[in-house]
């Protein structure tokens, strides 16, 4: 009995050493960046549109302007001010080789806020990306650095928090640093899927398998397949203790007790985050809003530090025997869920015809129609795509080309491709100067100014959908929230922007002849009154100049009294 206990002790010690070797990140070095308990609205690696979530979303009790504090000593090394993305963000570099990032902020601490404001007025530019030297803005652990908010690409008040390797700029999973976030809930599995890997995972697509739960074990009925080459995928979420749907940290796939695939989300670089689209069933995600993660490697998926090399997860069934499948899901606290099932090949149905694939991973490809050319590079696709491109008439009076159907918006592309369109009539130089290419991918549209190469208009895109060439002669505009000449006693001025095609790509406001700092909030422009326009300063003239994607410029004048 003593020998057995000693053996168990040694095994536990070895496991602990292995765990520490795998996770050599400093524990308890960083503190909670809020002064309220850490509660997660999203975790590192959660599935997002076209990217992994790269940090923690910390709940702020649906409030804005909570104090945000430095997670450790260091210095402010960078700030960003941008319309989407992080909104207002602070980067703090620490002496231990890591950088923390705090995003969607409303306001920086006073000295930093004043510096940024002075820089904006000096540059006459609201958007900023400023780097600092170590001695400019040193901070202590727990020092207030900002107020939380809802700026940039945020859909509600929260704090986005990241930890990065300062040298490589890789984002590291913050939950590996020992934060005190209670979690006793194992991942929840709600679906199992298999794919015929003789073909692309996009066609014929996923085959759903019902999952049932007994106690802490998930299972399904025998999976009978008609292909000797298959792979699996899982639909699951991690709830932690807080109710939000969080992403899965670690998954393993075993067949007959042998590991054949594993992924773990420890670190990701922003240059690689779009590879998320090669880790999920993209058509299901875009069309059905379902987050299904592959338990296999697609041939064009090249994300580093994600899955174990050489374990592809593609299963070759060499016989018609019953094989045991086990899927193990874990969170960073070690809470574990298991799904067990069995799979058997049924060879009775079976002729494989040519799939006619037109775009293959790791190969470049040019596809043409009568008036269109689409150039894909070798990194364009994650799996083979039977690409269908064709033209059809377009009824838009501003269109100067057919509509070009580029396969389907439910198929992802990784890198930007070049789209060339030949107009269906001769265009003057002035018309060419106002030409844009519009790509409609269902949930939204992307408009770029056309670049001309002879008679061909060119643009670059990273989504598929339906494209056309337009002449945009519409002026962008803004509308004021006050009547012209009225007294304004509010705390701010609001201008609502409108661009019929494309976007307002340039905005400038001059108050009585001097540049005035308007922040851009989605499609609106907001000026918060300060010393540049104090109460009692009388009548003012606001000149606003806007330009849209096509280059059309509009100058508008507004008056008010203060």
UniProtKB/TrEMBL annotation:
Q: Which Gene3D superfamilies match?
A: Glucose Permease (Domain IIA) (2.70.70.10)
Q: Which SUPFAM superfamilies match?
A: Duplicated hybrid motif
Query: Which GO MF term does the entry hold, naming one?
Result: hydrolase activity
Q: Which domain of life is it from?
A: Bacteria
Tell me which residues make up the M23ase beta-sheet core domain. 52-120, 132-167
Q: Which InterPro entries match?
A: Cell_wall_metabolism_enzyme (IPR050570), Dup_hybrid_motif (IPR011055), M23ase_b-sheet_dom (IPR016047)
The residue range of the signal peptide is 1-21
| Record has Transcription as a keyword | no
- State the Pfam families in the record: Peptidase_M23
What keywords tag this UniProt record? Hydrolase, Signal
Q: What is this protein called?
A: Murein DD-endopeptidase MepM/ murein hydrolase activator NlpD
| Native organism | Chryseobacterium sediminis
